[in-house]
Amino acid sequence: MGWRPLQLGAGGGRRGPRLRLVACLLGLALVGILGLLPAAAEAALPRGNAVTDPTALLRDALPIEQRDLQDLQHRLEQTSDDLRAKRWSALASVARRSQSQATAKRQAILSSFPEADQAPVSALLDTLDGQLQALSSAAESQQREAFLEARRGALASIGSAEALLVGPYPYAIPSEFDALPRLLGRATVLLRTTKGDLTAVVDGYNAPLTAGAFVDLVQRGFYDNLPFVRAEDFYVLQSGDPKGDADGYIDPTTKTERRVPLEIRVPGKEGAFYNQTFEDLGLFKAEPVLPFNAKGTLGWAHSDEALDDGSSQFFLFLSEPELTPAGLNLIDGRYAAFGYVVEGLDVLNELTAEDGIVSAKLLEGAENLRQHA
User: Is it the case that residue 309 has pLDDT exceeding 60?
Assistant: First the structure.
């Protein structure tokens, strides 16, 4: 039976060396950690800590511009270092500033929404106010779990408000792909595996064709009872190879394998790039809107012979982003990410090549799927 591997190494054809790249990446990261890289190489490393939380990555990937809400969001997300170091005075200061900003900017935030959405946003801001008060109290009393709970709630409220700003799908998809399904928004998928459940949010804002192909196949029951065809510790877990001789999904109308183009969106660009890697585009230090920063990033597999022959196989990225940061992991800009596992990472850690997908079910977002243009 044929299958399309995630090939990242040079040579070897479809079953060529794969672990060599991982070893190189781990070696590069270790050298950097030990401070042995030359100054020129250090200057190329991404600045600051990579965002690794899937819900934070999804908030950042929304195609919106609301500086007041986004400033609040990022200030709260950036408290993790202070929390780990137990810098409670700094955390209390952040909580107070966040409360003050939310109050001072409330009217400006409300006025940036369509009138029809202002009532639910006002309710969210009321909830946010209480959550920020709880955050401040937790910081003052140095209660870590209470702080985490209040921060989680506050970020959820901010994210819900931000999602209301998106409106209609904002980008054009090239007409050459009119026959392909597309997801014009987001969807939530439940993957039941032999070890337990994974819940993933699939992002059609930034990968509409890839996410559309995946959700379409979920609704068709395509992934039910399929094994993981590849599992490598700290690297990838891959599935989607159908039973029989085909490598991907055979369209019942055309009787041919449906092909999904490589699709990657870069911040500040209107829509995604298609069938071009970052090397092709000369974007050697770029980070995509959907980076492979989080364990459980959903990626679309293609062969090492072509960029547009992905059909049904997908992989779950397992590598730790601290060891393979954005811009250096050799996956960003070469493969399309189209979502993130948001629940079930403990299950993901247990899955092996002996396991498989029992069923895939669409929980939310069916209204965002279109079968063609």
Answer: yes
Report which of 320, 294, 343, 318 is spatially closest to residue 196, judged by C-alpha positions: 343
CATH of domain 64-163: 1.20.120.290
Alpha carbons 298 and 339: distance in angstroms, whole number: 5
* pLDDT tens digits, 157-199: 999 999 999 988 999 999 999 999 999 999 999 999 999 999 9
CATH topology identical between 26-33+180-370 and 64-163? no
Determine how β-strand 186-193 pairs with β-strand 263-264: unpaired
- The topology under which CATH files domain 26-33+180-370 is Cyclophilin (2.40.100)
Place of tokens 């059609």: 204
pTM above 0.90, yes or no: no
- The β-bridge partners of 286 are none
Domain boundaries, the chain: 26-33+180-370, 64-163
Helix crossing, 67-77 with 144-163: angle to 10°? 150
Measure the CA dihedral 236/240/245/247, to 10°: -70
DSSP string across 149-216: HHHHHHHHHHHHHHHTT--S--S---GGGTTS-EESSEEEEEEEETTEEEEEEEETTT-HHHHHHHHH
